Amino acid sequence: MQLEHLKDTRTITREYLEKDIFPASDSLRNDPLNGQQLQGKSLFSLFYEPSFLTRISFERAITLLGGHPLHTEDASQFFPVTTPNYIEDTVEILNSLHIDGVVIRSSERGIIENATKASRIPIINGGSNDDHPTQSIADIYTIHKELDGVDNKVVSILGRLEHRNVCALLLGLSLFDNTEVRLLPFSGQVPPEIEKICKDRGLNLSHLQELSEIKGSDVVYLNGPRTAAHYELLKSRNSFISKIDSEFMSMLKSDSIILDPMQRSGDF
Q1: Is there a domain that residue 210 lies in?
Q2: Is residue 265 situated within a structural domain?
Q3: Is the Cβ–Cβ distance between 107 and 32 less than 8 Å?
Q4: DSSP 8-state code for residue 77
Q5: At 90, phi and psi to the nearest 5?
Q6: What is the pLDDT of residue 33?
Q7: Which of 29, 173, 204, 214 is most open to solvent, judged by the fewest CB atoms within 10 Å of its CB?
Q8: How far does Cα 210 stand from its chain's mean position?
């Protein structure tokens, strides 16, 4: 499967993951020093929001593959965002400078879609308002690698269910067979549109009330509070906050894995 852009998780297929992404990832893991596949190529991180892990991950990856990373700390300070077609104009400027690929992070609706329509170079969604395809790919690959497949797994997702990481993971899991997902919120809920897509694809979704209901999970996915202040607010309201201790681990299988997709302010 050939993708012109990686704009969202919805358009990713199981075939693309299993025939392209997983083998390529295995190859790089087994021989991380062989990577000169992108020698001479450049990748521009066009981030309109603060980021540490995502931006550095892209920059480190293209460096390991022989390419050259470029970025702005805050794209809105360097590229005008007040004109109607600012994203189309920006990617055209980057194309004129012979940039080979652009990663965009923006929560403004329509930005990724508009960029892909206007761009003659590959656009990667590095995090939009309700999606994060590269995070989903990384999470699905980890489950595949650590548990020898994604089919027939029980995945419990704890935390902020409205977050783009969770939306993207659910869409990714919905590509696999007989996968059960248990949802336990700290705050928020999965957007109805995302939940409907996943259920229509056959994903078994259930909503939990108690932490003990994650018992027997193959995967626990922790999506923590936004900030330290958010963490303290949840604590003051007696919202569910978990800690990873021996009692927590006793509820899981001996080979279960715990995924932490992002920096967090609360201490698990």
Answers
A1: yes
A2: no
A3: no
A4: G
A5: -65, -45
A6: 64
A7: 29
A8: 26
Going by C-beta distance under 8 Å and a sequence separation of 6 or more, which residues neighbour residue 82?
A: none
- Give the number of other Cβ atoms within 10 Å of residue 105's Cβ: 23
**192 and 112 fall within a common domain:** no
Tokens 């020898």 belong to residue: 148
141 and 251 in a common domain: yes
Instruction: Outline where DSSP puts E strands in 82-133.
Output: 101-105, 123-125
**For residue 74, is it within any domain?**
yes
Say if residues 182 and 217 touch (Cβ distance below 8 Å).
yes
Residue type, 134: T
Pairing of strands 219-223, 180-187: unpaired
CA distances from 147 to 12, 142, 220 (A): 21, 8, 13
For strands 101-105 and 123-125, give the pairing: parallel
CB contact set of 183 (below 8 Å; sequence gap of 6+): 156, 157, 161, 190, 205, 206, 207, 208
The answer to whether residue 228 scores a pLDDT higher than 80 is no
248's tokens: 């927590």
Nearest to 190 by CA among 208, 175, 178, 202: 208
Higher pLDDT, 49 or 235: 49
Question: CATH no. for residue 76?
Answer: 3.40.50.1370
Its domain, for residue 71, covers: 35-125
- DSSP code of 6? B
Q: pLDDT grade, residue 83 (50/70/90)?
A: confident
Q: Which two tokens stand for residue 10?
A: 């919805």
DSSP, res 214: G
Residue 2 lies in a domain: no
Among candidates 124, 152, 148, 147, which has minimal Cα distance to 136? 124
Through-space distance between the first and last CA atoms of the chain, rounded to whole angstroms: 39
Average pLDDT value for residue range 218-236:
68
State residue 233's pLDDT score.
55
pLDDT at 160: 87
Residue 114 CB coordination number (10 Å): 18
